[in-house]
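Dear support,

Our group has been running a series of protein-ligand predictions, and this particular one with S-adenosylmethionine is the one our PI (initials K.S.) wants archived with full inputs and outputs. We had some confusion internally about which version of the output was final, so please treat the block below as the authoritative record. The input we submitted was:
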Amino acid sequence: MGLGYSVSVLSSINKQAAEALAEEFSWSLDQQDADVILSWREGALTVHVQSDGELAGFKPTSFDFSQITVGDKKQALARACGLHKHPQRIMDTCAGTGVDAFILNRLKADVFSCERNPVIFSLLRDAYSRSGSPNGWSITCGDACQFLDAQHFDCAYCDPMFSSDTKRRGAERKEMRLLRFLEQGPNDSDQVLDKVAASSIRRMVVKRPLRSPKLQFTDRQLANCIEGKGFRFDVFDRH
Ligand SMILES: C[S@@+](CC[C@H](N)C(=O)[O-])C[C@H]1O[C@@H](n2cnc3c(N)ncnc32)[C@H](O)[C@@H]1O
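Confirmed final output from the archive:
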C-alpha cells in the first residue's frame, strides 16, 4: 500500500534486523531525514515521526504488553466477543497496537490478528515477539477482508479508526495519535465493516465511540450494545 510518507530503518543498533526489515517492506536504510524513523532502543523496535510537528516532540515509541491489565471475562470487550460463555475463535480485523487482541488471548480466546499498515504491523510484531509469541494468537500483515472466509471464526472483532474531533484528539492516547498519523490514508472503515457483515462469521463486534449513531447492515441485526470505558461495543448477529 502507498503510505504517503517516507520510512527509514536505522541500522546502528541492530544491523542485521534493520537490513531485513528495510528489505521486507522496501524501506530505506539510515536515511536520517525520512518522515518516519524506525530504530531499536533498549531491545524494542521504536517509531519516531519527524514530519509531524506534534508527534516529532514525542519520544520514540514502541508497542508493549507488559503493563496491560488484562481484567476478567466480565469486562465489556470479553462479553461483547462472547468469552463469558465459552472460548471463541476471534478474527481481530484491525489489530493496531495489539492490546485488545492481547487481552482477548489472555482470556483464552484463539485470536488471528490482521494489520494492514506495515509500520504498525512491524511495531506490533516486535511487541508480540517480546511477549513470547503467545500460544493461540497469530498475527499477519494484510487486509483483513482477504482472510474472512479462509478459516472458521466464531466472532469478528472490528475496531477501525473512526474520525475524532479536535477536542477528543487532545485526549487521545499517544499510541492512537500515532496510529492516526501512520494510517493517514482514506477513511475506508465502512469497507471492512461491510465485508465482515456480509461474511459467514456468526458474531460481529464493532467498537464505537459512546455516543455515535447505530450502524445498520443488510445481513445483520443489532443483538446487544455493551458500554465500556469511553467506548461502546455493538454486537451484531446474522439474520
Ligand atoms: C483503531 S486501530 C485498532 C486498535 C486496536 N484495537 C488496538 O487494540 O490497538 C485501527 C487499526 O486497524 C487497521 N486497519 C483498518 N482497516 C484494516 C483492514 N481492512 N485490515 C487490516 N487492518 C486494518 C489500521 O491500520 C489501524 O492500525
